[in-house]
Amino acid sequence: MIRDLKNAGFINRGGKGSHRNFTHPKGAKITISGYLSQDAKKYQEREVEKAIREVME
């Protein structure tokens, strides 16, 4: 998911603990929670797909 966000132009602004905040130059923002070694939750996958679709329009 993180690779997909970066490929779509999102920039990692860091975060606290297990959270990572991403922004896109078009104004989209998304926060991903969980450590890198953990599997993503289904709702997180849907949110990432939605954010990428929005900036690609």
Task: Give a description of the structure.
- This protein has about 55 residues and is of the alpha+beta class.
- Helix content is about 35%, strand content about 20%.
- It has a three-stranded antiparallel β-sheet with strand order 1-2-3.
- β1 and β2 form a beta hairpin.
- The chain is globular, with a radius of gyration of 11 Å.
- The model has no long low-confidence stretch (mean pLDDT about 95).
- In angstroms, what separates the terminal alpha carbons? 19 Å
Helix-strand category = alpha+beta
Number of helical regions: 2
User: Count the strands?
Assistant: 3
Largest sheet: 3 strands, antiparallel
Rg over alpha carbons: 11 Å
Helix content: 25-40%
Short characterization:
The protein is α+β, with helices and mostly antiparallel strands and 57 residues long. It has two helices and three strands; from the N terminus they run H-E-E-E-H.
List keywords for this structure.
single chain; 57 residues; alpha+beta; 3-stranded antiparallel sheet; 2 helices; 3 strands; 37% helix; globular
How are the secondary structure elements laid out?
Elements: H1 2-7, E1 11-12, E2 20-23, E3 29-32, H2 42-56
Antiparallel strand pairs: 1-2, 2-3
